[in-house]
Amino acid sequence: MQCLRAPLSDLSALEGQRACAEWQQPGQEQSDYHPYDADYCMQSLCPVETAFRALHGCNGGGENENHGNVHGSNDCFSNAWPDIVSSMHCPVVGAAASVEETSVNASSSSSSRKRKSENNRRSKENSGGSDGKDDSNCKRIKEETGVGAATPEAKRPNKRKEESADASKENDKAPKSDYIHVRARRGQATDSHSLAERVRRERISQRMKYLQDLVPGCSKITGKAGMLDEIINYVQSLQRQVEFLSMKLAAVNPMMDINIDSLFGGREINPTCKSASIPMIGMSSELLDQSYLQFGSLQHDMFMGSSDLLLRPNVNPAAAVSDTSLGSCLNVNGSSVWNTNLQNVYGVEFQLGRGTALPFQSLQGNLLPNNLKMEM
Amino acid sequence: MQATKSFEQAFLRHLLRGFRLSAVSYKSMSLQERKSAIKLSADVAMASARGSRKWTRGLITKLSREDEHRSFLRLILGTEYGRRTKPRHGSWKIPRSKKIVRRSLRVCSRRKNNLRAPHGVKSGVLARTLVEKRTHALKRLVPGGESLDGCSLLDEALDYVISLRAQVDLMQKLLTTFEAPKLRALSKCTLPERKASFVGK
Asked: Residue A183: enclosing H or E segment and its boundaries?
């Protein structure tokens, strides 16, 4: 049994390295599209995750199209999961893979052909020798007919589930035709419905495990109904929190009015405003980003220290400051100068009222190009 | 599990843009209107930063049902508006007739009961109805979840929870950012003179 498992992970690593290279290339514009890819998997697991992604990606067709096929296509992995779980950090990889899988499935064309990946072919070759002693049935799921062609040899009742994991045969064997083979576990019924159902149940329990990690305080709850209950409560509480926070933000709003009007409104309403205010618009968003990224304590001294920077006379018109530069600046890791600026700047504004907002506009305008110089 | 930095940055960017776009009439709005405007831009920012998922499309569709939101959405999303609201080919769901589904469920449940508990224990049925009830509740909570089956519903719920958490985090940080100067002003009275001297230069 061990030998069956090993090839799968080896090949996954191999696949992963290849897939990793080709996946990383269209990186930039997909970074928003798939925001969870790189960070979800730890670095060492990236190959595995991309391997699974690549393999899932080979399976075209939407999930909803053909229930039996989907289950069949994911069989090799859902069956393999329990084995690989312990060695790799399953939730991270699995979540990414499952997230990827659904997104890939959703985005792929509606072809119902499921391409067999090399992985399955190779694992079939490797495990070809051990087939002879197989006593459970090998089942084919034909995608055209959707009917299992299993020989009803050993029909055991459904009651005997969860036999030892060693006894389960995990690998698919697929010729280059588009059949997806599922192995029935030892001591379980082998008709198509129960197999598909078992696969479906395993997937659901997998997702439940990830959600258990996600929702706080769910480690003790084991049943599906209880877990669903917790998930529902959590989602509801998050939604209520969003409402509450937006109400609070609206209440803070007299301040936000000042900020938004002077910071942003100048651009929208009055396009002929001073050039100094334009850099500030991009920069204030930046400041928020920096404060967001490095949300540290307010350090008054640092502000005074940075006043030298602020006092430099040249005001860079920087009319080109727009969302694009904002976007580029977002990737800049702020120096320590940035740490304090937002709170201090806003603090000053509030202190001195709107009348003096203008000099600060120019000062803030200085800040942007200076830091751009620093960072780039 | 955490949302990535790029997601959070894109989220913040869209959020600020949304604030800017809706800020023109801020002064004249009541508290309720401001709150709903903020919530709207937060939701749209979350959906557009995440990309194209079932729940993002559902959310945008739900938001665009109201006419006043539609222009805002169009402004924010621009060309993506049409793309996001249109379902993709791969996610076409099978048209299901309720009667047939119900009938097949009944058959399946009967067969399951006969196989598992031939001696008449109905706990399985009870558990299943509980689960079904909760699944329906979850479907109502997750935007766009009505047409999903159990597995993908859990997927989308997972994604949605992560994005919601990121949204809450972001808004909390924004809130503290906006409120911090006030708090500091209350605590540190020496601040004005320093700033005044600074401004004087």
From this structure: strand A180-183
CA distances from B102 to A217, A278, B96, B106, B107 (A): 35, 61, 10, 6, 9
Q: Under 8 Å CB-to-CB from A351, ≥6 apart: which residues?
A: B181, B185, B191, B192, B195
Bigger pLDDT: A41 vs B8: B8
Residue-level pLDDT at B86: 58
Smallest CA–CA distance from B194 into chain A, residue: A304
Question: Do B24 and A99 lie within an 8 Å CB cutoff?
Answer: no
Closest CA to A244 of B159, B21, B175, B185: B175
Distance from chain centroid for Cα B12: 15
Cβ contact (<8 Å) for A348 and B3?
A: no
Distance CA(B149)–CA(A199), nearest Å, equals 14
Residues in chain B: 201
Shortest CB distance from A247 goes to which of B35, B130, B134?
Answer: B35
pLDDT for A250: 83
Question: Can you spell out the DSSP letters for B44-93?
Answer: HHHHHHH-S-HHHHHHHHHHTTSHHHHHHHHHHHTTHHHHHHSPPGGGPP
Asked whether residue A237 carries a pLDDT value surpassing 80, the answer given is yes
> Which has the higher per-residue pLDDT, A291 or B186?
B186
- The pLDDT value recorded for residue A148 is 39
Which residues from A are below 8 Å from B26, CB to CB?
253, 256-257, 260-261
Mutate to test the interface with A, among B6, B19, B24, B113 (most CBs of A within 10 A): B6
Give the single-character DSSP code of A111.
Answer: -
Q: Is B185 on the interface with A (CB under 8 A)?
A: yes
Closest C-alpha among A86, A76, A163 to residue A118: A76
pLDDT of residue A259: 56
User: Which pTM value belongs to this model?
Assistant: 0.49
- Residue B135 tokens read as 């699944």
Interface pTM, i.e. ipTM? 0.76
CA A282 to CA A266: how far, in whole Å?
12
A167 close to A187: Cβ distance less than 8 angstroms:
yes
Q: Where are the alpha helices (DSSP H) in chain A?
A: 2-24, 27-30, 37-40, 46-58, 67-73, 75-85, 90-107, 118-127, 192-214, 224-251, 253-259, 266-268, 277-293, 300-305, 307-310, 323-330, 336-352, 357-375
* Nearest by Cα to A95 from A231, A219, A208, A232: A208
Name the phi and psi angles at A98, rounded to 5: -70, -35
Comparing CB atoms, the residue among A64, A253, A307 nearest residue B94 is A64
DSSP track, A18-84: HHHHHHHTTHHHHTTTSTTHHHHS-GGGHHHHHHHHHHHHHB-S-TTT-HHHHHHHTHHHHHHHHHH
Q: Does B28 touch chain A (CB under 8 A)?
A: no
Q: Is B109 on the interface with A (CB under 8 A)?
A: no
Question: Residue A139 forms beta bridges with which residues?
Answer: A182
CA distances from A205 to A5, A18, A111 (A): 21, 30, 28
